[in-house]
Specification:
The chain has a single domain, classed as Dehydroquinase, class II (Rossmann fold). The protein contains five helices and five strands. The protein has helices at 19-22, 27-40, 53-66, 89-98, 136-149, and strands spanning 2-7, 44-49, 76-80, 102-106, 128-131. Strands 2-1-3-4-5 form a five-stranded parallel sheet, with helices on both faces. Helix 4 (89-98) links the parallel strand 3 (76-80) and strand 4. The model has no long low-confidence stretch (mean pLDDT 98). The chain binds 1,3,4-trihydroxy-5-OXO-cyclohexanecarboxylic acid. 1,3,4-trihydroxy-5-OXO-cyclohexanecarboxylic acid binds at residues 10, 80, 82-83, 85, 106-108, 110, 117. Its EC number is 4.2.1.10.
Length: 150
């Protein structure tokens, strides 16, 4: 089993960025926690963060469909599209194109925030949606996938 963990724009600033909303853990901390779980369960893990929409799309295409290297082929995706959640038909279409199950994660509870955050271009196609659990949402999503695939 191989899981791809994708994080969108501004999530490189976790720990420094609006900590009252997004918490004090850095993205490095979050990825380290998932990496630990992955090695415990002998699951392959690829983590990627970018501020660019096209880079997310290319990563989804590569690992989800285009690569012929079995070591790079993934079974499922955990994605926090960040602000692209509310804007990106293109990332939604990329996920649908590769046809891999994905879990949508948000650190904050987007439903208690500004109205523009309450619509997601992903949720109706996600296998599961987690929001408001902070960094724990990523490990919850990962543990779910581990029990699903083992
Ligand atoms: C976020 C919520 C989004 O609305 C916001 O644009 C983010 C982070 C979250 O993890 O809570 O950048 O996806």
């Amino acid at each position: 089993t191989h899981v791809l963990v994708l994080n969108g724009p501004n999530l490189n600033l976790l720990g420094k960025r609006e900590p009252e909303i997004y918490g004090l853990q850095t993205l490095q901390d979050i990825e380290d926690d998932i990496r630990q779980l992955a090695s415990n369960h002998q699951v392959k893990l690829t983590c990627f963060q970018t501020n660019q929409e096209s880079a997310l799309i290319d990563k989804i295409h590569h690992h989800g469909l285009l690569t012929t290297n079995p070591d790079e082929q993934i079974d499922a995706i955990i994605i926090n599209p960040a602000a692209f959640t509310h804007t990106s038909v293109a990332i939604r279409d990329a996920l649908l194109a590769v046809n891999k199950p994905f879990i949508e994660v948000h650190l904050s509870n987007i439903h208690t925030r500004e109205p523009f955050r309450q619509h997601s271009y992903f949720s109706d196609k996600a296998e599961a949606v987690i929001c408001g659990m902070g960094a724990f949402g990523y490990t919850a999503a990962f543990n779910y996938l581990v029990q699903k695939y083992q």
